[in-house]
What we know:
The structure is a single chain. The chain has helices spanning 10-23, 44-55, 68-82, 94-105, 125-137, 150-157, 159-164, 176-185, 195-203, 207-223; strands at 32-37, 58-61, 112-116, 141-146, 167-170, 190-191, 228-229. By secondary structure, it is of the alpha/beta class. Helix 3 (68-82) packs parallel to helix 4 (94-105) and helix 8 (176-185) packs across helix 9. It starts with 9 loop residues before the first helix and ends in an 11-residue tail after the last strand.
Amino acid sequence: MKQLAMSTTKNVINGQKMIQYLLNRPKTEMVGLGMIYGQPGLGKSRFAKQQAIMNDYVYIRLEASMAHKSFLIRLLEIIRFHLGMSKTPIYGSTNDIYHKIIDILINYDNLVIIIDEIDYAFDNKRILGSIRDIVDETLSVIILVGMSNAREKLLMADAHYFDRCNYFCEFQEISEDDIRLLCNEIPDVEIEDRIVTFLKKVTKGNLRKLMKALYSIETTSKAYDISEFTVEQLKLIEIS
């Protein structure tokens, strides 16, 4: 399977539109804050990671155990590495580390920072506040990635913060057209078109389940030396 394939599904197209909108915004009038949200398994993190790799964006994933200072240290480490800066020990107070980040970002006005698993920050208002301050004090674009209720949680956490978010992009269930596109572009085996409807039904539009199904189809095809996987051969695999 093609590991870095970024098929232009509707979710991918909408996510890319959001990033371009924020990059092209009137920077002195609008902050570069956006959010991707949606149900589990729709490809939000996959999109975030692949966009970061393919377009040289900064990617950081929040962790449940992260405190405010550890988040800032990790963000500073990733930004320094991303920009090819020397790796030096990070000392100082939380405020010192925050300002080191700001000092770097004011010189890189087109930098895109993707923060995945933003839901963890809703229980740590200081992390959320620092992200808000970064978009207020720099011209960087920051994309938050969270679960289906992330938009509502952001509103409940801080209405003014919510108003700063200039683009919300909801990832939806993948359609049959999306599945057909992925079947054509991801596996290293040809898949009969009649299988698309079956995959839509069994995966219920969940990208994570679809990728597992495509992996099963591909590995089975290699095991049985199948060049085109057909509906009749579905009995060879188990899709959950």
